[in-house]
Amino acid sequence: MTIEEKNMLFHWNYFLAFDADAEILSRYIEFTNDNYKTYSIELIRLFLDAASEVDVVSKLLCSKVNHNINDEKENRYDIIRKNYPGIKDMKIEIPRYGIILSPWKNWKNNEKENKIPDWWNAYNNVKHHRDSRFKEGNLINTLNCISGLFCLLLYYYRDEAENGTLRPHPNLFSVAGEFGGGFDIDESGFFKFYKL
Fold first, then answer.
1. 52 lies in some domain
2. Average of pLDDT values for 186-194?
3. Residue 92 within a domain
4. Number of folded domains in the chain?
């Protein structure tokens, strides 16, 4: 008896865990404008974990461009913006709730300022000043953070995303419009193409 193991997409699997956690969370907090400022220990846990993964994946994505990248976050995000310009226009949907998120839109309007997203500032505030900035670990920052991670991962796993092998698919989050490349089915089931 042999067991064959294919290349594992560790960071994709971790994102899928965030997607599943957000789906469970949606049973307790309705994803609607009225609740975007809702905060809790569970939201902060999810927010801090997802933002930590954004930090890890952003470093990995930069290393695909420049193996000698230093640990400066601003430099890292500048490299991503310049080498993956489509990321600033990406929109992530949560179709079940009619939500469209643009987690990296700050880059689109502030290229010269190199402004980081509001949710990333909130992450740093919660991480370093949880006693006074607890409320920033809210629903909208958490959803934007998970969406931002989704965008980064699509570029990190670009080949798999574009050829339809980035599976399984998230249950809650989806790309919007022009970044969706269609669907197909094979002997292993349904698969999706992304256009990046």
1. yes
2. 64
3. yes
4. 1
Note the pLDDT of residue 188.
58
- Give the pLDDT confidence score for residue 185 in this predicted structure: 61
User: From residue 31, how far is each of 96, 126, 142, 156 by CA, in Å?
Assistant: 9, 21, 11, 28
